Amino acid sequence: LGQYEHDQIHYYNQENINITLHNRDLWNRFHEITNEMIVTKIGRRMFPIISINIHGLDPDKMYTIELSFDQLDTHRWRYVSSQWQPGMKSDQPIQHLPYQHPDSPNYGRTWMKDTIVFPKIKLTNKIDHTGTSQVILNSLHKYKPKISIIDVILKKKIYEISFNETEFIAVTAYQNQEVKALKIRHNPFAKAFLDTENIKKEMTDE
Amino acid sequence: LGQYEHDQIHYYNQENINITLHNRDLWNRFHEITNEMIVTKIGRRMFPIISINIHGLDPDKMYTIELSFDQLDTHRWRYVSSQWQPGMKSDQPIQHLPYQHPDSPNYGRTWMKDTIVFPKIKLTNKIDHTGTSQVILNSLHKYKPKISIIDVILKKKIYEISFNETEFIAVTAYQNQEVKALKIRHNPFAKAFLDTENIKKEMTDE
DNA sequence: GACCTTCTCACCTACGTGTTAAGC
DNA sequence: TCGCTTAACACGTAGGTGAGAAGG
């Protein structure tokens, strides 16, 4: 049902739920190049944005959709000779609360009607940032976003999925020129930087 | 409990619900001067914005908050000699769907935590406007916004309130200079027009 | 003509980008 | 020095204002 073999899914009971990554092509391209994700002190939006479609919910039941970020290892990664390499061990992962989609809680009917997008979530490296839309991550560490569905009445998590294409390394500044170019081409807010040599090169490559 | 004598309240059962108008002072000033509210073809935000505080909900129960607009009479109003006067009878009121607050549905706990604001609602005079944030009104007719609370499980309206200060006459262009001046002073998006004689006059009056 | 509505416009708010230089 | 982070900045997107002319 539109699931890729390498998607990691966990059903907590026998629901027939199905989540697909809506902008999979862009995430694939991101993953192929080098998956750097900017985090800043004041918080930065993700690029690409997490965008999903859900099927198989009960239209009349109430659900909350959450986004959280699993730290994949305890390495501090380094960009050496145009490649990301695992560095020395770091501290334990920072604990962060899941980010609830702002339409939560809502009916299965509502969640299934349109593509669900997370454009407002902000990634930050500042511990004391307490805004509800802020998620705290460790720079130079590897993360994998995870989508969870919570049954509001049962107060239980009933489904979880994560996609390999959405893995990323948090950085405070881009290391790889191609990732930067990808964003400049696809994010309207970066349109001011379209006319540089790097972008033109990247565009002819594709 | 913070209710004014002239607020019109309707309890559908014995709940201890209490809603107060958060920006009552601004609405009072609006009502004293002349209560014109702009409606346009593409939809205009309200000024002032409806802004309320709710108490007495069950923190764990789920509610939907709605805003609707009751047409107060069937007159077509006219601005003559610096005053609004009832004109001839018009057609029957336009039917419009209530506007649901975008955080709906949600827990009583969430609704009571902060002031609830309706900045996104748009007033339009175009029948065929179907955006969910659009509410269709008849220009030159008198309206009174009404806030309703719906119990999500019972699927029943359990409370209704409307405030006299929030009555308004829908117009496609301001007739009264003082209302225009009030908006220019209080709405940041109108800051471009702050330095005119009318505004200065109004400011010294207050 | 009188009254009301619509359209285009300049001018704001609000905020999302990478750049660059400075900081640590 | 080196590697990474921060802050100020110019330059975009996106959208909310009344003004004033044009339309009905």
TrEMBL record, chains A, B:
Q: Where in the cell is it found?
A: Nucleus
One GO cellular component assignment for this chain's record is: chromatin
Residue ranges that the Swiss-Prot or TrEMBL entry lists as coiled coil: none
Q: What biological process terms from GO does the record include?
A: cell fate specification; positive regulation of DNA-templated transcription
What are the alphabetically sorted keywords of the record?
Answer: DNA-binding, Nucleus, Transcription, Transcription regulation
A Gene Ontology molecular function term of the record: RNA polymerase II cis-regulatory region sequence-specific DNA binding
Q: Give yes or no: UniProt keyword Membrane.
A: no
Domain T-box, by residue range, is 21-195
Query: What superkingdom heads the lineage?
Result: Eukaryota
Could you tell me what this protein is called? T-box domain-containing protein
Species for this entry: Rotaria sordida
Question: In terms of the whole protein, what range is present?
Answer: 4 to 209 of 365
